[in-house]
User: Fold these one by one.
Assistant:
Number 1:
Amino acid sequence: MHISICLLPGDGIGPEIVAQTVKVLDAVNARFGHTISTQTALIGGAAIDATGVPLPEATVNACKKADAVLLGAVGGPKWDGIERDIRPERGLLGIRKALGLFANLRPALLFPELASASFLRPDIVARGIHIMVVRELTGGIYFGEPKGFEEREGEQAAFNTMVYRKSEVERIARIGFETAMKRDKRLCNVDKANVLEVSQLWRATVVAMAREYPEVELTHMYVDNAAMQLVRDPSQFDVIVTGNLFGDILSDEAAMLTGSIGMLPSASLGTTSPFLYEPIHGSAPDIAGQDKANPLATILSLAMMFRHSFELETEAVAIEEAVRQVLKAGYRTGDIMEDGGTLVGGEKMGDLVAEKMG
Ligand code: NAD
């Protein structure tokens, strides 16, 4: 199978973690006999330095031609003073928009080997954390119109609009159901249907779609309760589907249950490929260029790419298993270091995972 991936290393630790992930990709090629090719394009601060803009046209074209996109991270203090419209982060928003990516998948998976990194009580962690948050990414209150500032009865006021069209809910709900079908077949819809009309439409749409997925057990939870349940007993969740605002908050909360930002991958999906894969962390300028960055979140993003873009589950599981083996053997980068672990740099971590793939 011939596959092409566009790499967007970006800024800070981005190039380091992407380089480690390419080692793993090469190992997948060798083991499974694929000819996966890569090409690299500019985004973020690196693109600003080279071209004056955070998302050059050439990058958009290179991404569109590829089967999938792997991003490192963008941003850093060097570009903080730049005017808002051409900041590095604009590159990220721009590429998501250009590729029509409306669904963000963020797994919160606690590797048993890293259980002590969780902020939760050991007895809660012992029940396991393996959640997938499916968040709508391009609608809802962050984008709804009208919005703005105005004067109301002589006083300053500000307002936003939370709006979803049925078709927007349908397409994200479908991703929720399809994701559940590939996992434990349990989908929890999170909304605020007891208060918000937009949530009532949301819920009715999800319920209607459930008929197409009789194997999936669908439940509903109000967002305030979901926030509580995530810390009370995260083991109860398989897949969560929710809107942009609620998903923004809950996916960060779910991520923190695992305690280690350097371990968490993500996928942004649309209707047609290419989709985008990236670690959830940023460019970590404080450790850039010191071989301290943990590449595992990016390597696990590659595993998601195999699963969601190429439907190559065996390869995805092989990557995840290689990561698990390396952790089991006690190797740790600084961010996940614990008593008795063997401290390694990012380069070595990449080598170890690639070796385990062999
Ligand atoms: P950050 O995620 O970059 O870093 C937060 C902390 O976690 C830092 O102490 C960092 O050293 C550590 N960390 C992050 N990733 C790590 C890894 N792989 N291995 C080891 N340690 C890791 O968040 P921040 O400091 O708030 O932001 C830094 C820059 O990144 C800013 O310019 C911000 O705008 C940008 N950012 C980019 C993205 C993205 O590209 N998707 C996301 C968030 C922030």
Number 2:
Amino acid sequence: MRLIVVSNREPYRVEPSRGKVRLEKTVGGLVSALEPVLREYGGTWVCWGRKGKGPEELRINDRFLVKFVPLTSGDVSGYYYGFSNETLWPLCHMFLTKTHFNSSFWTAYRRVNRKFAKAVAEVYVPGSKILVNDYHLALVPQLLRDAGISDPIYLFWHIPFPPYFMMRFLPSRREILEGMLGSDVIGFHTQHYVENFLECVREILGAFSDNNTVYWNGRRIEVRAVPIGIDVERWERLAKDPKAVRYANNLRKRMGVEFIGVGVDRLDYTKGLEEKFRGIGRFFEKYPSFRGRVSFVQIAAPTRTKLEEYIDIKRRTDEIVGMIEGRFGEPGWVPIYYYYKNYPDERLVSLYMMADFALVTPIIDGLNLVSKEYVISKTDEDGVLIVSEFAGVSLQLREGAIIVNPFDEDEVAEAIYMALKMKRSERRERMRAMRIVVREKDIRWWVKEFLKDVSA
Ligand code: GDG
């Protein structure tokens, strides 16, 4: 099978270095999940050529080619920052008040989706499977159909899909749904999002649906709930690397506290960083005996930094961290170590390994890969995952995780307390249960399950 992956995000950033080019894997859920798949299975990855001036194609190995779609600055601001990240992202995450409706965003979105479809048509050879990713490219499946491509098209939507009462606000709701229905298979992380999608196509398009199948324009479209997995082998390898183990042990010693918590998120308003810090503050307020004994390490990776909402969330997060440091911190003890930067996976794994608990509190999150990375990095099977009930992953990991409502700071505080007081035997039992799920439902499972042939 020849795979063509289409996504906004490029799998590598191309950095010139001493006359050569250095490839740096880009950060984010999609790339973390799919880059290993293409390396292993081969195929073409069609994506945004971020710098505009770089090469049009890049060969990673003899089977894996990256094709860049050059975008103008007008494309980028209207399609990427505009329609994708100021309209669809907040709408799908139920932030109506942060959703900007602007017809020039929509014009750019349509234009860029056409550019992507054209680039796919250029590399397409009959007999391929086409995997279109995410909300940036909702129109591509139907555009490919219009271009006469009859091979199977799979669309995976990595973020939540909103219910009809949210989707109806979008002026281009019909076109978005029709674009998506050009696919043969549409995937979401949970059955809940599947149901929202089915409700939208019924209410907005008047399409007929039966179980998880939509009947539209004489075609059948299967809608699947298939939560994405991580590259378990790779994370286990990283976790076994003696350098990573040494770094984790040394760091833990240097921090000099009894307990360490960890969080890794893009600094996005959906990830609930403010809520997390409020919960931590509440914990130190309610349980003063833990002051000086617990520190929390938070990586907040910069993202979409040009947008006002993101400048704003950065300011608010800085402020709340400052408030907690100021209120609870003492010379010799830092309650929250907060880093606004990217770290390589080799560092993240050490942070996961040294942490007694991970705190993942999105307000709403399609799935959340960090939770799975934490679980797999705990090769000693010891550690506690606290996760928001509004992250898709909480359904998969509910046997082992402590599930919280991130808006309830008391509940978050209690969850931290429970994690610190939990007996080793219970920690292991819960961690084992989660490790089984993450292992079984890894990225290879997802590829098989989601890209399964359409049933006859
Ligand atoms: C979308 C959906 C869904 C983060 N900071 C650094 C870093 N990361 C990596 C993590 C993880 C990935 O980025 C983040 O994945 P998430 O799943 O948590 O979230 P999104 O980026 O919002 O992804 C999400 C996902 O797509 C997959 O479908 O789960 O719901 O929103 O892999 O490790 N990686 C490195 N340095 C960092 O500083 N190396």
